[in-house]
Amino acid sequence: MDTLCLSHEEDVDGICSAALIKIVKGCKVMLADYGDLLQALKEVTNVKEFYLCDLGISKGTFDPFVENLERISKFAKVYYIDHHPQTKKQRKRLEEIGIEVHHSLKECTSVLVYDYFKESLPREAAFLACYGAITDHMDDSSLAKKIISNYDRQFLLLEASLLSFAISKNNRKEFLLEVVNQLSKLKLPHRIESINKLAFEQLDNIEQIIERIKREGRKIGRFGYLLTDEFPLGLMANMAKGVLGVDVGIALKYKREERAYDVSLRASYSYKKHLGKIVDKLAKSLGGSGGGHAKASGCRINENKLGEFLERLKVSL
């Protein structure tokens, strides 16, 4: 195997980033979330090129993250393409071990990948960058806006939404890998088998989600939150913003085995602070882990720290 891409499995941006690299390199693709990122890196062997996409750096796991990339860099050229917060010190350390870093807070990862490979990509591959920008709420950034302006916006919104809803309905790796494969063949989302069915099943859940938020959602300062164990956290957090009339919507899911809460946060377009930086700093101070970008972030918080997390978040936002 000459080339391998490891990308974020949880959202459209990571899926589209992998598909774009697969178009250019014909590579094998692996998908991971933050919880299994280090294990996925340990499994990387015997490749000549390695692309890591849309998986941000956590301060708490940075040392083993770098150790894994340093190991891989001894037998492969390593490219790291990402848009999550990283410090100058972190970037310098990565570059010192030979990692080629392509990073910007201003664009989503799939737009960065598209821009890097655009001379080698067919025109229609721009759609994939657009899907990532739209679903990551970064379609108003300068490069994404320029790409999107070349096409019908309603068409892009529809295709991106179908893809996003389908992925949130079925997040099993085998399904997501098949979506990557089909997107790399430049199939439109509505033409990919089962995308429409899954998307509309998820749409049918929206009414239930709204009623659940009305019934169980709570407002604290500028944010509103609720617990869920049946609906996707990102979708719940996004809907909570409007239903509760807050700047930041939060959805929490209790992880019994870890005795912790997974937390997803989504900010409105009018919210001016960088949500990912706030969550990263706060989660670390409470012994958890997290991060993200300006309008969307997530973290894991120990069960006995949740109350303190919410109170401190009220002040930070």
How does this model look, in words?
The chain has a 6-stranded mixed sheet with strand order 6-7-8-9-11-10. The protein has a 5-stranded parallel sheet with strand order 2-1-3-4-5, sandwiched between helices. It has helices at 12-25, 37-42, 62-73, 88-96, 109-117, 126-135, 142-148, 153-169, 173-184, 195-216, 233-244, 275-285, 306-316; strands at 3-8, 28-32, 49-53, 77-82, 100-103, 218-220, 223-227, 248-255, 260-267, 289-292, 296-302. The protein has 317 residues and is α/β, with parallel strands linked by helices. Helices cover 48% and strands 19% of the residues. The model has no long low-confidence stretch (mean pLDDT 93). It folds into 2 domains: 3-196, Rossmann fold; 217-316, Diaminopimelate Epimerase, Chain A, domain 1. The longest helix has 22 residues, at 195-216.
